[in-house]
Specification:
mainly alpha
Length: about 140
Amino acid sequence: MTDEVATRLPIRPSPYEYALELLQRAVALTCLVLGTAYWVRLLGFFDGPAWRFDLMPLYWQATAVPLAVLFPFAAVGLWMLASWGPVVWFLCAAMEVVMYGFFPERYGWFVLILVLHASVAVAYTVLRILLALERRRSAY
């Protein structure tokens, strides 16, 4: 490694990198909770209609199973700061936005989830843009 390349390597993470890391870890914990909630629903820990897989309507079965698998998977990717973590989270978020935003007559109107996913997407996008601008500035 040449001296020129070694001097461009960051000694410590920038505030934007640190904030992005914190955001991803917080979203990872949220994904773990949401994944556990879907597993609880699938396994039928609570009494009630549609609170067990064999009693759920087909549209709930088709959405709850992939989300129960993908949310913990996204949590692992986000916690490890892997590049595929945000991609898997985006798949889960898009699925829930379609469920609760476009089909509230079937899945219910869960505004908190919609706001949560939208705010995370905006925060992630803003931090990635700021980080790219910072890297561009430091390259010159």
